[in-house]
Amino acid sequence: MSDHSDHRQRVKARFRKEGLDGFEEVHVLELLLFYCIPRKDTNVLAHQLLDYFGSLTQVLEAPMEELEKVRGIGEHAATLIGLITEISRYYLVSKAANQEILKTTRECGQYMVPYFVGRRDETVFLLCLDAKCKVLCCKEAGRGSVNSANVSIRRIVELALGVNATTVILAHNHPSGIAVPSQEDILTTKKLAVALDSVDVVLADHVVVADDDFVSLAESNLYHPDDCHMII
Predict the structure, then answer these.
(1) What span, in angstroms and rounded, lies between the C-alpha atoms of 138 and 128?
(2) What confidence score (pLDDT) does residue 157 get?
(3) Cα(78)–Cα(61) distance, rounded to whole angstroms?
(4) pLDDT tens, 67-104?
(5) Pseudo-torsion of CA 44, 46, 50, 56, nearest 10°?
(6) What pLDDT, on the 0 to 100 scale, is given for residue 80?
(7) Maximal CA-CA distance, the chain
(8) CA triplet 210, 212, 217: central angle to 5 degrees?
(9) What proportion of the chain, given as a percentage, has pLDDT over 70?
(10) From CA 222, how far away is CA 165, in angstroms rounded?
(11) pLDDT over 70 (residue 1)
């Protein structure tokens, strides 16, 4: 067995024994690349990726076409790296789905955060609950900011009615990493609340997600569900 093969075996054995907790970012990438680049020194490629993108997080969240701009990173490597955040989101959403009853807006916000893991674009989701606070569904309602043309109030109302929801919670992300609601977010929330109220559906909250944190408009006193009938 060559020194290179010995090195790979040692890295794999270390992971199997200790997990990733003691690994530096470059070694995490090096190990990942073992499984798509069989005969090259992936430590060098891992350094190149970190130099190009700046951090492990930025590497994992980079578009696949950007990853392929790094010399030595081809389609297979870019696809494998791109899978990581997608699989992470899939896992976290599946895990959250086990919680069927959400009794507070805080629980609803926490439930929705995984839906935004690794998303580079602003995306809007609608969480629908029945009268007993049981989750009916959580569906994508549009791409772009909540006040953009890509997010239709009619679409959101139709989603709620389609599953016979009595209460809904709106969520969208700020890819910039700052979970601060804008004035447009607040105004659109109130307009949407009026539209939903007209079909007997309550918009209980609107949460703005950034990274693994969120801000609730209701908890921040920026939106009051009981006042929706007063908005013109």
Answers:
(1) 6
(2) 94
(3) 11
(4) 999 999 999 999 999 999 999 999 988 887 777 899 88
(5) -160
(6) 96
(7) 76
(8) 55
(9) 93
(10) 23
(11) no
Which residue type sits at 207?
V
Length of the chain, in residues: 232
Choose among 51, 33, 35: nearest CA to 43: 33
Question: SS3 string of the chain?
Answer: CCHHHHHHHHHHHHHHHHCCCCCCHHHHHHHHHHCCCCCCCHHHHHHHHHHHHCCHHHHHCCCHHHHCCCCCCCHHHHHHHHHHHHHHHHHHHHHHCCCCECCCHHHHHHHHHHHHCCCCCCEEEEEEECCCCEEEEEEEEEECCCCCCCCCHHHHHHHHHHCCCCEEEEEEECCCCCCCCCHHHHHHHHHHHHHHHCCCCEEEEEEEEECCEEEECCCCCCCCHHHHHHCC
pLDDT of residue 66: 96
Tell me how far CA of residue 40 lies from CA of 8, 24, 168, 188, in angstroms: 11, 20, 51, 52
| pLDDT value, residue 228 | 55
Instruction: Extract the tokens encoding 158.
Output: 């139709």
Each residue's pLDDT tens digit, 88-147: 999 988 887 777 899 888 899 999 999 999 888 899 999 999 999 999 999 999 887 776
Q: Among all chains, which residue has been given the structure tokens 């969480």?
A: 127
Share of the chain above pLDDT 90, in %: 68
Distance CA 34, CA 5 (A): 10
- What are the tens digits of pLDDT across the range 159-198? 999 999 999 999 999 887 788 888 888 888 999 999 999 9
